[in-house]
Amino acid sequence: MTGHGVSKEISAMTDKLDKIREAQKQRIEKEARPGETYAQTAHRLQVAADKQPPAAKSNMRKPPNGDAQMDFFAPALYDVGTRDSRSIMDVAVFRLSKKERRAGDVIRYDLPDGYVEVKSGPDGMASIWDYDIVLMLVSQLTEAMNAYRANKGEKPGRTFKPHVSDILRFCRKGHGGKQAEEVERALDRLRGTTIKSVREGVTTNGKKSRVVEAEGLIGGYRVVSYTDSGRVAELEIEIPKWLYREIIDGKRPDVLTVHQDYFLIEPGLGRFIYRLARRAAGKNSAKWSYQTIYERSGSTGTFKKFCFMLRKLIETNDLPEYILSEEKGLKGPQLVMIHRDSIEVIDSSGS
C-alpha cells in the first residue's frame, strides 16, 4: 500500500473513531439525571455496563499463574518474514483447528510463479499452536546470531537443547504434566509436516527452470525421559535447513518482531490474522479480501462459515496491536488491518 493509501486509510479510521466518540458523548448527555454531572453519568453507565455479560467472547486467554515471559533468555519474540522471498506468514503452513487432525492431508496454495504444498504425516498436521515451538527456534537462533555478529558469542549450530519448562514458559502455558506430554506430540506433528515449494522461472541463459524444495517444519528430535515419572530429562531439536539458512546465511535476515500476547490468542484464525497483519500491515495498514484470506488459510469449512468467524474477530476486536474492520470491495468484503499506534499518532497530532 502506498503512503497516500495508508494515510487515507488511517484518516478514514480516525473519522470513524471520532463519530463513535461523538455518539458516546451524546448518549451520556441524554442519560444524565437531574443534577448529575457528565463525569458522574459516564461513571454510572460504565458501572452498569461492567455488570452486563460481554457482547462477544474475548479472543485472548488469561496468562498462566506465575507468568514470567519477559524474563526468559530471549528478550524478544521473532518470526520469519519470508522463505526464499516467499512468505510463510501469508499462507497457513499448519492447520488452524484444534479438532481436525488432518492426518495424511495436503493443502495446496497456487502462487503466480508456482505453488506451495503442506503435507502431513500419520501423526496429523502441525497446528498453529504447535508452531509456537518453531517461533521459539526462530527467536533463540536470531538472538544467538545477533550476539555472534556483535562478537559476543559463537556462531549458533542447528541443534537446540531447551528444557520442556523453557518451552512452556516461552509459549506462556502452564507447567502441568500433560503439557509436557503434549510437547512430544507437537514435535511429532512438526516433524511429520513438510512444506513443498515449487517454483518455475527463467534462468540467466534464458532456459525455463523448475525448482522443487521440501523440508519439515523441524528436523529430527530426541527426547530422554524418566520411565517412573514420565518427566522429560533431555530434549534436542534439530533446526530445519530452510530456517537456519534464512537466519544465518542472509546478511539481513527477514525476521519480524511479534507481540508477546500473540501466545494468548485463543482461536487459530485469530492467530493467523495477527500474523497476516504483522506481515502485511506492519506499523501502518493493509487490506485483504475475505476470499483471499479464506484461500490462504487452508480452511476446510465453507466460505460462509469462515466469514462468520472473521466477523466475530472484528466484533471483539481485541487482537494485539491491530484494529480490524470490514469494508466493501469490488469483489466482495475486505478486511482492513490498522496498527493501533498509527491511529494514536494521528489522534494526538489532531488534538
Automatic annotation (TrEMBL):
A Pfam family: RPA
Region annotation Disordered: where it falls in the sequence: 1-66
Compositional bias per record (Basic and acidic residues), positions renumbered to this chain: 15-34
Protein name: Replication initiator protein A
